Amino acid sequence: MTSVTADPQKIDLREPAGWRRTKNRITTGLMVLSFVLVIIPLGFVLVTVIAKGASSISWSFLTGGPIPPTVAPAGTGGLGPAVLGTIEITGLATVMSVPLGVLGAIYLNEYGGKNPLAAFIGFMSDVMTGVPSIVMGLFIFSIWVLHFGFSGLAGAFALGCLMLPIVIRSTYEMLRLVPNALREGSYALGATKARVTLTVVLPAAVGGIVSGVLLAIARAAGETAPLLFTILTVTSFNSNPFSGPDTSLPSQIFSNATQPYIGASQRGWGAALTLIAICFILMIAARLVTARFAKYSS
Amino acid sequence: MSTVTRVDPASPAGSTGALEHRRPLGDRTFAGLALGCGLLVLVILVLIAVTTSQQASSWFSAEGFKIFTNNWNASTQFGVLAFIYGTAITAVIALILAVPVSVGIALLLTEVVPRRWARPIVYVVDLLAVVPSVVWGLWGILVLAPWLQKIYTDIASGVTSIPVLDSLFGQPVSGASFFTAGLILAFMITPIVTSLSREVIATVPAIDKEGAYALGATRWEMIRGAVWPHSQGGVVGAILLGLGRAMGETIAVALVIGSSPEITSHLFATGYNMPAGIANLFGEASGEFRAALLGMGVLLFAFTIIINVLARGAVERNARRKRGA
Lengths: 298, 325
Known about the structure:
The complex is a heterodimer. Chain A is mostly helical.
């Protein structure tokens, strides 16, 4: 019992010595450093936005309006029109893109299977996530705004185009996780394919789908570029998203960012904090939904 | 009715056993609807190409190949080479800064830290992607740029007599520059490059890694010998996707690049990239000027589609090879 074990002093199995060990440590250190390099700008941005934006946040800032001219001092007026616009436009974009995206993903996973058309659509949908958001803005400008004028609806179209492939991708991933036994079980009971999909497959995947949708909304809510040429940027309330120029939080930040006036940049920071808060809340909600419904996710 | 003798999973209505059984109308409608939504992706992509090209056609036909020259004059000449140059240079700076960091984090997540630590790290990296572009821009121009300007000035005066460096790092005009834009872009593309690299690296078979360890390799030697050969192609795909993002990013760049269409080797000089040019100039444009900006959008669309197709192709090839192996 004692004689077979080698003397641990003589054979060190733990780590090779010398340059190889040093190199291993250096590279591990570099990996840790790369994470630190990411924390620094992130922390810097968050701290700055909170520090500079917190003072301007108030109920009247979030709901009051119209948005004052850029020369107005800090603390006057509110960003109500922008908050309203963001909610309207992102909401409309969600209403448009989610059903279409979920149905598209259903086609890819439930109907398409391995056929080449479905594979091609899936591939192009992934490619579409890489289309710059400003191109979506130009597209809606060319196809809609030139004929029907600026409106919140046009902005929603642009954001919808942006969200569609994201919704398709995340829904598709979730549908793939639904075990086939569920489908087979309901087929065995005589259900049609549509019924199986709508009443068995979708409910099984709903947590993941909702979480994907929330992330897509967070992405769209922060977008400025697609809105520049579709909603214009006005300063007054426009409660009708279907006609007339509109505004949004990101557009307001953009137009205030380059102004030399303290009031303007103050409002910019306030709007930035509001926008970041909205995006973070959506992301946290997505995580919570995922955790709550994580039935089949890995 | 007759008894069910055969269940076809695709049409299990159960009323007849015959093969010529037609699926109910509702079922067929739903299938058609789903197909339609799938096709919508292709329709939108084709429409983007067609409608924007149509609006830009007057620019393409008036200038011909002169669109690729550096004659930019907001009323008469619309050669957009300076914008293309700015797009390329900022994207390259972003990649040089972001790729080592992203791959480093991906390796950290997959090979170094225990699983329960990996999740919070992923959350933190993903937060970078949640910060909206315009907030990066606001922070970039109001906080980062003034601070960088001092550093730029120091670097520039430090390298004045060194041959190559002095033409790369000249005296800054302001804190807004190609380099500032590239830096902000690097922050913005890190999450996507990280998450894709991580997916790719996670597919390396455990047996290869264990084999390397069994031969006495250190962790780094295992990464070099087992992880890298397997994930090379996929990581290249991830980098290309990052490139696509960096090229198309608009608002953050529009705020921090300095807005002047110039071709210069000075990385600290102000410049322009295509999306920022479109965003900043579109409002006051009309006629051929507007056509030129829309045309720039068409070029941008074409570039990013090509890069994304290549990137997705590389990632998918990598994934397929893994499954086959």
